[in-house]
Amino acid sequence: IQVLRQDLFFFFFSSRRRHTRFLPVSWARRCVQETGIQEVSKNNVDFIGIGGEKMRQIGITKQYSDINKFVDRPFMPIKNFHRIRVGTICHPLMVQYHWQNIQVIKEMEKQQFFQDIISNPPSAFLAVGSEYFMVRLYRRLNEIYALNNVVKPPMLFYDRLNTHQRYEFKDYLDHFLYTLPNAPINWRRYHFPGTFVGVQEVAKAYEYLYKNSEKHKSLVNNKSIFIAREENTAVIESLVNNARDLFRQRKQINETATLIFADVGSTEWEVKWAAGRINEAITHFINRFTKTSATTQRPIPAETFNLVIYCPQELKAKFDAAIGSKQFACKHFVVTTDEDRYGAIAASDFGAVLNGGVAFECAALQLPITILDQEFWLKTYFLQLYNSFISDINIAYQGEVYPELRAQSFPEKIADTLGEFYLNPKLRYRYVQRYEQLMVKLLPQAE
Questions:
Q1: Sheet of strand 175-178, all strands in order from the earlier edge strand to the far edge
Q2: How far is CA 120 from the centre of its chain?
Q3: What pLDDT, on the 0 to 100 scale, is given for residue 395?
């Protein structure tokens, strides 16, 4: 079957005259979409809005506030959903979100944003991330355009789920772009006008595998990718084995060595939090299996284990500073590019990653992982109460497959989970089997 490789920026059209898009990105992890902005900007589209340093680097025309003034990864309830109770400013978890949203709106007022959109209306508005900020902003925009008798541009919203988009949202929102294929949750089974754009991390992981295979490279391009309708798992397993061999040969890693993959996040704060924790966890893991114990009657040489860590190039200095003079308990190396990250995932035997898009890449490349999360205890409590899961991949599956260390991401627990993967290699096939049907559903099929 043919699946589309479309992310939110493919929905912007171009013509002979240049268009302006207002793009408020409302949490830091969403700033990874900046590469899509760069590609579209070459095609008669300018962007103004809210962003971070990466968006400044690629030339966003004007920024009215800074993305770092938002709460990163804001809480959004999925089950047991009572918007009046959860969305209120008096809610103990939501009070900070609402306060910061209000501060951003005030800063936008100081930057003459609301005057600019009347004197020079953008061709479209696209909010990315926090629904609560989107609602506050779009309601305000509707009032302003109505008072000034100006035609309102299309208002779009890009986020994970459309499960709770209700009919009354049409008062301020025109179209919804969503990444997870979960069915709407409402008694009328109402589908808000929207487009399923899929999880592009899966498509990019498949693209990496296809381009490293002479037989499959012709099945992928920048718009779509062909995958097997049946037996897709077997095809991907063969491609993963090929990528595994290529990466291990390039990095001179023995085929019999155990390779552990670790991801330390995509923001400065995450790298500082994860670097030392991963180091300690690996030390606990190595000590457990290289010394005689009830688990290991015969010690395993430390040389058997290798660690590969992915850290974005721009955060490599922060990672080195976080590690400092600490030594890893086994041979390790750091990769900083997307290509090497895909290769490292394919070549590894198991791993530990921070909650994010990399979990989808690991599932696509059939790697057993444990998902770490650094949320404070109050948010973890409400995540468990309203959502049950913290990772998008388990939310999409509607069940926990990859283990999540909610409020338990301390080194000893991480080491224990890695130990389970090491002692039971068949877990890889259990995860592959559980996610088999989901992988196809995560990408929109071509008409």
A1: 62-66, 45-51, 19-24, 124-128, 155-159, 175-178, 194-196
A2: 34
A3: 87
